[in-house]
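Q: How do we represent a protein-ligand complex in a form that can be generated token by token?
A: Start from the inputs.
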Amino acid sequence: MKIVDVETIVFKYRSRRQHDLAGHSHPAPGHDALQTLTVVVTDEGVNGYCFGGSKEINDRIVKPALLGKNPLDREKIWQMFYRRLQASRGGLNDRQLAIVDMAMWDFAGRYLNQPICKLLGGYREKVWAYASTMCGDEMEEGLNTPEAYGRFAEQLIKQGYTAIKLHTWMPPIEWAPDPKRDVAACRAVREAVGDDVPLMLDCYHGYNREQALYIGRELEKLNFYWFEEPMDEHNIASYVWLADKLDIPVVGPETAEGKIWTRAEWIVREAADIIRGGVGDNGGITPLMKTVHLCEAFGVRLEIHGGGAGNLQVLGAMGIPGEFYERGLFHPNYDYESVTPWLKEVIDPVDRQSHVHISQKPGLGMEIDWDFIEENTVKSNK
Ligand code: MG
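Then emit the structure tokens for the protein with magnesium ion bound:
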């Protein structure tokens, strides 16, 4: 069994989202956008698929490294790429590795006719989801005031969500960040949804110690459930300082480089109460499962960052909490359910109890709409 090709299909779709200069997504008028699909082609007549990935990096680095390799040797391949990360001068990154690793897991699942969560060791088939909002903005009818957050939270509760996380205002908004305004948004949401709904805050990531402590203490008064990433995650000492002073669980690191080793450091230094990681941050399912087991060994919770098929399959196999799936991002002017027109069904269907059902179909569990992709393919290296 061996890998005989790595293809990157590029296709277009109508997007209603765009990213600001800091990389945060907001609703936008409909426009053409590009999406990629990484395909690991094997000589078994079964392929592995994962949406995303750079064609340039796949062609230049990934494909030459994978040709002839056994696609089931995921650990060996991950170790090879990990060494390569150091020598690639930034040409290869964890998000790209995550796509390649997930495509190989998808192959394994399709080949063995099992969902990945069962190959990892099944633990659950549904998971509690919180609705995660987009960042604050200055749009009319958007998330432009604390009151707007309150009204939107009410709407989300009416839709059936039983937990909500706010992303508040960040640069490039001129007056952002503003700790008092963040707290005002949190207060408006708490007043709108009542005392019992778990609420979380993920605010600007560059607050200083005193600003973060002020927000954290206000969140304690508002009975928030966790406080996520308020400072630069490279500054572990500041997180040790903050977590020591607050009762509310501090959550991190999310996007900090260093995978399992960075998270090990945060755990032993007690820099956070709840560890954070996702397939994109850790470099795939293979390394994220190592973080899962690391947290289990230390009795520390791990909350998964972001949505999508790979994170869901990991949640299906996580024997420690991991209490939540992050569903979103949501905004009053944006239809999240239409976000992946290249799939025949949404990957994270949510029921009226705010539970997302984890696909039990083979691999990543995606029903790919090949007609849509073929009709919209821009360029392929086939
Ligand atoms: Mg976050």
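The longest strand covers residues 25-42. The chain has a mean pLDDT of 96.
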